[in-house]
Amino acid sequence: xxxxxxxxxxxxxxxxxxxxxxxxxxxxxxxxxxxxxxxxxxxxxxxxxxxxxxxxxxxxxxxxxxxxxxxxxxxxxxxxxxxxxxxxxxxxxxxxxxxxxxxxxxxxxxxxxxxxxxxxxxxxxxxxxxxxxxxxxxxxxxxxxxxxx
Length: 149
Fold this sequence. Notes:
The chain is of the alpha/beta class. The chain has helices spanning 54-60, 77-80, 106-116; strands at residues 15-16, 21-27, 34-37, 44-52, 66-71, 91-97, 121-126, 129-134. The longest helix has 11 residues, at 106-116. The radius of gyration is 17 Å and the shape is globular.
């Protein structure tokens, strides 16, 4: 609702994934063991979820450039950064919580994929988030209420 009248903000009520289509939310047993996957998962299907790849989302909104892409997808970054990565060079700044506790080596995968683009990024740690700003942009992090120093 905060961005409803902002035509420069695009909201997507779908799961971000490496491909567009249908995903399934599985209950793997226990209160903290839900996971998302395709139809070959093990566990009880709790819900069907529509997914969008970033390629499709960016094409849908006819965007040449994304200023800031903030991801908080509890380890799905490993999937999102695994294939169909034509969208990567369009993003000027990435912000995400380091996802390695949910998906081991996901941060390394993100860096490896960004490295393949040939673009360089300035890395910042800001609280629990990793902030990557494309080199050459006049953007800098500033201190906000002791959050960044």
